[in-house]
């Protein structure tokens, strides 16, 4: 707080009111205490603000009372300079308002930030402006009145974030006070700037006011107890009441006020500098600011203050400025107002102009307003002494407006008519009920004239019975009836160059792209090839703008694809904000996309998959081989630097598409593709053993690695890679997870290290082992994953599943089946169609053929009868033939049946000669066998 004492700024104007409030505080609390200090401080703030040589005009944002008072005061005072509480760097945008239809929001936008936390990006600030707002009336007066200067004095948008808390600045939530979602996306996630945020920010006080005012939310209380009494009030009364309310809410506000006080120091410093530099008399100027800022306690307050304030320099962030469309609902969501509050304020503004016979200020050439003859300003009224109007306003009861039966009856009839159009079963009886209920609710709330909020409650009670038949409920219909959600539009001349270029290039379509409704564009590119540039631009915008801004109904765009006919739903008018923000990034959409692709591959979190996607976009949307080579080179660097294989499936899918595309072109594979294949082969061979063993690496990633290695092995070997590296990587892999074990078996089969018979034997043992059966779904999932790197395993996977379903009992199969289905669905959903087609080729297609069906793997496992060659004769064969009992017993034990082979002359003479030369050993062995046979 300022060290300036209250006594130094007091005058005798409000002495009586100050004493009266002090006595009231004593009577209320027994001691002056805090209540007396607050009440006396409020009077001091009013006295101080009104005693300042530079006239202070306190406002509340989007307040019709403030707008009407501004119109009256500008016509009376006719100031030479208007100081406005708005970011000073937004000043150039104000001249473009005449090319727009209100409501409009001024925007400052920054994508590349310096000096702020990286997680804040992008930075966006908006300042909505409506026709009924006091700031717009001041802007229109200053811009269209010769000799009047408009000066914005608030801190820059850069300082908005410099002075923000250290945590990320949180924009207003997308719901109003009544909890209904109100943000239609026109403001996005921008931080909202408002002139005069008059709300207590003191929960107990706000709850007390709402309870005793018999209203639901703050907007209704403010309209009933502040707006309506001040709409027709004289200027002195309006000014004193607004400063008093601003002082009260400022004193009751919890939390730090450092940022607000810095803003006030900033504004007063800027105004003193401007007055001194241009030698302007403060009596010829008007300072428009929020009511809370009018009751400022800072030492820099006033043009006569000498207290210094050092303004910090801006950061190195590059800011872009433009106008974006706004709407009543977007403003309500941005600043936490009740749904329909801004529409009701607009209706109050229009009624106040008619009742006071006032002519508002409007910029010449403003879109959406009727052209009218300019009204010359009357001579300025001389200044009069300030008198105490506050005492009378606080002491007398508010003048209640009488019941306007004609207006209420018109509302009741129109809401019934509107409800019937939207599917409600409403009748004349409902109109009468709404009329009477509105009067009843107003009486219960101590009001003689029903407000729009009373009428809204009555309509909901009488018309909306049990359900909403259409998209709009009755509360929304009331908002439409009372003015609707007006949506602004930025004119062509006020758009950035990129947006104007887009509209010019799409002009051959013959559509009015300023409309907010979806428009259908039909492009027959074969009959009208001159529309091909429009098609290219639409696909570019589809890539850069939100998905709903342009939606292709027919046609596609991909590598090597060319559409003959296309159909589009175009909604650029509704997404004008996104188009404007796109214009902050460059002068053409091609430049913006190229910058985004380069930024994506240069980001710290860029991956090889990101770079390959950028290459594909460069070829599809820009047809730039130069940019594709640059991005592809970056993809090789990123792949070599990766230490994980999380993106292996995406890398495999994208590089396959690019290789197939380049092979179909006349130039063939570019050099970066060859380097990518060789680098990927060595990279994945190196990481394969680790990926098999790591728990965090899933079977999909391992299968993608194997798919890259096996699928591109021929190309990699032709470019100088070594096949031994892959074999060693597979031999060094020792997985434990069942799915990865199945993948390893498949890889060894693909390399020839495991035969089909051995693979079939391992799977048969797996199905025969009760301890392994619970993990069979994981094994099957691994085999299905292996279909991609080893397509020849498709029949084998069908065989494994068929054996499982054919051999497992129901007690095992039924609990096991759900897990198998969910595992296959979650992990290998894209590979199942190929497996189903393989099963269709394997099994018979007709029912009669089922009985005679022999599975192919059964035919393979049945041994075929082959002629047995005669065994060579010799001592061993002669010995076995002479004593066949032992061999027959062993054959019976092993389950083999058959006869003895015939003998032929011995071919090995050396053996027989050796046995003949030394017969002792053979004779001893024969004697041993003879003794054994005798004992048996």
Task: Give your account of this protein's structure.
It is a single chain. It is built from 40 helices and 13 strands. With 936 residues, the chain is an alpha/beta fold. Strands 1-7-2-5 form a four-stranded parallel beta sheet. It has a four-stranded mixed beta sheet with strand order 6-4-3-8. Strands 9-11-10 form a three-stranded antiparallel beta sheet, with helices on one face. Helix 22 runs parallel beside helix 24 and helix 23 packs antiparallel against helix 24 (625-641). The chain is elongated, with a radius of gyration of 43 Å.
Please specify the SSE layout and strand pairing.
Layout lengths: L5 H4 L5 H15 L3 H19 L3 E5 L4 H14 L3 E7 L16 E7 L12 E7 L4 H11 L4 E6 L2 H6 L28 E2 L10 H11 L4 H14 L3 H18 L5 H21 L6 E6 H4 L25 E6 L2 H8 L5 H16 L33 H6 L9 H17 L6 H17 L7 H12 L10 H8 L15 H9 L13 E6 L7 H13 L5 E5 L10 E6 L5 H8 L5 H14 L5 H15 L2 H17 L6 H16 L7 H23 L5 H13 L1 H6 L4 H9 L6 H14 L4 H13 L7 H10 L8 H14 L2 H18 L4 H11 L13 H6 L9 E2 L2 H8 L2 H10 L8 E2 L4 H9 L1 H17 L1
Parallel strand pairs: 1-7, 2-5, 2-7, 4-6, 12-13
Antiparallel strand pairs: 3-4, 3-8, 9-11, 10-11
List its traits:
4-stranded parallel sheet, 4-stranded mixed sheet, 40 helices, 936 residues, single chain, disordered N terminus, elongated, alpha/beta
Provide a concise account of the structure shown.
The chain is α/β, with parallel strands linked by helices. It has 40 helices and 13 strands.
């Amino acid at each position: 707080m300022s060290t300036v004492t209250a006594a130094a700024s007091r005058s005798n104007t409000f002495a009586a009111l100050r004493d009266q409030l002090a006595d009231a505080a004593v009577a209320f609390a027994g001691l002056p205490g805090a209540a007396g200090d607050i009440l006396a401080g409020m009077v001091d703030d009013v006295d101080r603000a009104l005693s300042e040589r530079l006239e202070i005009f306190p406002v509340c944002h989007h307040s019709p009372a403030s707008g009407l008072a501004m119109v009256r005061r500008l016509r009376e005072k006719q100031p030479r300079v208007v100081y406005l509480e708005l970011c000073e760097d937004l000043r150039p945008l104000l001249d473009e308002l005449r090319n727009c239809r209100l409501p409009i929001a001024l925007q400052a936008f920054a994508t590349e930030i310096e000096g702020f936390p990286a997680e804040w990006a992008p930075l966006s600030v908006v300042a909505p402006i409506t026709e009924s707002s006091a700031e717009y009336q001041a802007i229109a007066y200053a811009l269209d009145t010769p000799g009047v200067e408009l000066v914005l004095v608030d801190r820059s948008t850069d300082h908005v974030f410099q002075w923000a808390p250290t945590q990320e600045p949180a924009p207003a939530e997308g719901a109003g006070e009544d909890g209904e979602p109100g943000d239609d996306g026109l403001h996005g996630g921008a931080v909202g700037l408002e002139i005069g945020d008059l709300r207590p920010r003191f929960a107990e006080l706000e709850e007390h006011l709402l309870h005793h005012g018999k209203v639901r939310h703050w907007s209704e209380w403010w309209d009933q107890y502040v707006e309506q009494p001040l709409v027709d009030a004289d200027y002195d009364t309006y000014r004193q009441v607004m400063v008093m309310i601003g002082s009260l809410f400022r004193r009751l506000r919890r939390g730090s006020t450092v940022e607000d006080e810095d803003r006030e120091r900033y504004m007063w410093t800027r105004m003193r500098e401007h007055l001194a530099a241009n030698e302007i008399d403060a009596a010829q100027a008007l300072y428009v600011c929020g009511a809370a800022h009018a009751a400022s306690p800072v030492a820099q307050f006033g043009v006569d203050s000498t207290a210094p304030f050092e303004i910090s320099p801006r950061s190195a962030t590059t800011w872009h400025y433009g106008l974006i469309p706004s709407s009543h609902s977007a403003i309500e969501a941005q600043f936490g107002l009740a749904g329909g509050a801004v529409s009701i304020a607009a209706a109050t503004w229009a009624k106040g102009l008619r009742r006071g016979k006032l002519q508002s200020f409007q910029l010449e050439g403003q879109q959406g307003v009727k052209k009218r003859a300019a009204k010359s300003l009357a001579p300025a009224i001389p200044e009069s002494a300030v008198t105490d109007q506050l005492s009378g306003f606080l002491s007398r009861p508010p003048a209640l407006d009488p019941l306007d039966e004609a207006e209420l009856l018109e509302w009741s009839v129109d809401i019934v008519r509107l409800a019937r159009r939207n599917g409600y079963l409403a009748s004349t009886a409902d109109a009468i009920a709404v009329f009477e209920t509105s009067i009843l609710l107003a009486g219960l709330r101590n009001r003689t004239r029903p407000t729009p909020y009373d009428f809204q409650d009555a309509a909901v009670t009488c018309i909306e019975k049990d359900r909403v038949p259409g998209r709009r409920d009755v509360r929304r219909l009331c908002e439409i009836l009372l003015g609707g959600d007006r949506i602004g539009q930025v004119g062509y001349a006020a758009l950035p160059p990129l947006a104007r270029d887009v509209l010019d290039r799409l002009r051959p379509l013959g559509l009015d792209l300023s409309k907010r409704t979806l428009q259908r564009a039909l492009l027959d590119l074969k009959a009208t090839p001159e529309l091909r540039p429009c098609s290219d631009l639409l696909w570019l915008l589809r890539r850069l703008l939100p998905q709903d801004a342009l939606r292709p109904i027919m046609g596609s765009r991909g590598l090597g694809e060319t559409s003959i006919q296309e159909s589009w739903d175009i909604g650029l008018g509704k997404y004008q904000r996104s188009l404007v923000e796109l214009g902050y990034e460059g002068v053409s959409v091609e430049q913006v996309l190229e910058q985004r692709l380069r930024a994506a591959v240069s980001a710290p979190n860029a991956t090889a998959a990101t770079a390959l996607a950028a290459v594909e976009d460069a070829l599809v949307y820009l047809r730039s081989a130069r940019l594709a080579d640059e991005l592809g080179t970056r993809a090789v660097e990123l792949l070599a630097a990766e230490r994980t294989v999380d993106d292996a499936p995406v890398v495999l899918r994208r590089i396959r598409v690019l290789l197939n595309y380049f092979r179909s072109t006349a130039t063939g594979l570019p050099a970066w593709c060859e380097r990518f294949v060789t680098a990927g082969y060595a990279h994945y061979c190196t990481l394969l053993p680790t990926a098999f063993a790591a728990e965090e690496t899933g079977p999909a990633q391992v299968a993608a690695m194997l798919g890259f290695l096996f699928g591109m092995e021929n190309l990699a070997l032709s470019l100088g890679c070594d096949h031994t590296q892959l074999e060693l990587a597979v031999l060094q892999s020792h997985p434990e997870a069942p799915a990865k074990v199945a993948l390893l078996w498949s890889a060894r089969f693909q390399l020839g290290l495991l035969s089909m018979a051995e693979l079939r034997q391992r799977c048969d043992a797996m199905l025969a082992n009760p301890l392994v059966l619970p993990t069979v779904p994981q094994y099957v999932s691994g085999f299905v994953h292996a279909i991609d790197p080893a397509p020849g395993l498709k029949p084998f996977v069908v065989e494994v599943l068929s054996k499982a379903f054919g051999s497992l009992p129901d007690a095992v199969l039924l609990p096991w089946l759900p897990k198998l289905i969910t595992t296959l669905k979650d992990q290998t959903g894209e590979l199942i169609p190929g497996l189903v087609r393989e099963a269709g080729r394997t099994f018979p297609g007709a029912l009669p053929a089922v009985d005679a069906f022999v599975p192919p793997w059964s035919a393979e496992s049945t041994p075929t009868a082959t002629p047995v060659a005669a065994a060579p004769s010799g001592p061993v064969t002669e010995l076995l033939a002479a004593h066949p009992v032992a061999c027959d017993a062993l054959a019976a034990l092993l389950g083999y049946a058959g006869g003895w082979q015939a003998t032929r002359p011995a071919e090995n003479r050396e053996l027989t000669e050796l046995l003949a030369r030394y017969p002792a050993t053979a004779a001893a062995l024969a004697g041993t066998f003879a003794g054994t046979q005798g004992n048996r």
